Amino acid sequence: GPNGVMKFALLGELLSWPGKIRAGIGAFLGHAPPPEGKEENIREWITRTLGEEVFLRCVDPFVSGVYAGNPETLSMISALPKINRIERISYSLDWNKFGAIFYGGLARQVELTKERKADPPEPEWVEFEYGNPGSFRKGLSTLPNAISEALGQPVGGPEKDSSKIRLSWKVTKVEKDGDIYVATFDTPNGEQRVRTKSVVCTAPAHALRGVFSSVLPQTSVLFDKVRKDINRVGIYHPPVAAVTVAYPKKSFKDVDLPNGFGNLQDLPGFGSLNPRTEGVRTLGTLWSSSLFPGRAPPDYNLLLNYIGGSRDPEIANLSEEEIITEVDKGCRQVLLKPDAPPPKVIGLKLWPTAIPQYEMGHTEILAELEEAEKTAPGLWICGNYRTGVAFPDCVTYGYEHAKIVQSYLESNKVAESRVAA
Ligand SMILES: Cc1cc2nc3c(=O)[nH]c(=O)nc-3n(C[C@H](O)[C@H](O)[C@H](O)COP(=O)(O)OP(=O)(O)OC[C@H]3O[C@@H](n4cnc5c(N)ncnc54)[C@H](O)[C@@H]3O)c2cc1C
């Protein structure tokens, strides 16, 4: 949690002494209040509460890791709502007049522990620690594959007409015919129409141009809204490349990490994030072979690198060879000995429109969308620009939203049977 990060920053060697003192003042004594009536970006919020150095050394790399974003355009309240709330909790403590953040963090931790106790994990789930990274043994596709199978379409098998899944169907238009929605799709077998009582759309914001122009034209805020102050039109999805490479363990620097975790050759941790001030182009590297068993032979380390993002959109214009060269250079700057062999490249995927950015003005965009949605019962425009970008947030939102749709359909059934009677 945030207090864990604070402890790491205050006790470790991440910050200089002046940086530690400034962070300590913000954490334990207080800081300037938030500006009235003005949305803050992440850089402004962190600098005001904990100081410039915490921003540069701790938060800037974290923002690169989660959003591949620019902390000067990302909105604090939209992009990091849970941390932003800690300030409000801090000020809500009567005796904490100057909003010292530590006490808000502590109060939130107590609240969180209570929430988790009240809603414990199901007994059949595998053991896990909250906040730790996780995956499935055979990778994240396990989840969509299981959903597909449950809906009658085993993955890899021939497409079944009886299944409730359709692949490679691209929605182009949603219209209304009386109370019924009519969705038009481009499909491998030509144009197809589906008539339905409700629609939940989870396609990315950038794919929705024109789709809802007749039933919910206000959806255009997602791709048309101009925000001059940050020079954006619509929600920005910058490009990010994910590059998986492997090097022999013995080609890693033979140094013990100062935090006492162990030798770098064993990659004792979950990964590294690169502050932009360090001059490393790669945003961050997941130490995949340390995180997940069975991902590399015992004498190799497997690294998943992310490169690109809001502050480096040029990545989309590089060839695959050029991207690999940049990633290899970053690995050498941070982890490898100078004579390390070239990488074994296991995978490279450029996501041209990767992660939606929750930038300044995002709250207003979502408020406009939510207001408009009220005029179209049975239609929901969701997606990771609304649910939070973290995979668990997307899944949780989907799970909870399914209940809303179910209750809408059930209440409609009651209404229909009344009309019939
Ligand atoms: C490179 C990268 C690394 C990430 N790493 C992490 C991580 O380590 N941890 C984490 O928690 N999160 C991570 N995320 C974020 C997380 O993966 C996403 O936010 C999440 O998977 C989004 O889920 P979604 O269902 O909203 O969107 P998506 O999974 O993007 O699904 C949208 C679907 O809509 C489809 N679609 C597009 N247009 C149309 C159309 N016109 N009609 C019909 N369908 C359409 C697309 O084909 C796609 O299948 C990462 C994201 C990226 C890009």
From TrEMBL:
Its main location: mitochondrion. NCBIfam families: proto_IX_ox. It comes from the Eukaryota. InterPro entries: Amino_oxidase, FAD/NAD-bd_sf, Protoporphyrinogen_oxidase, Zeta_carotene_desat/Oxidored. This is Protoporphyrinogen oxidase. It is found in: Mitochondrion inner membrane. GO terms for molecular function: oxygen-dependent protoporphyrinogen oxidase activity.
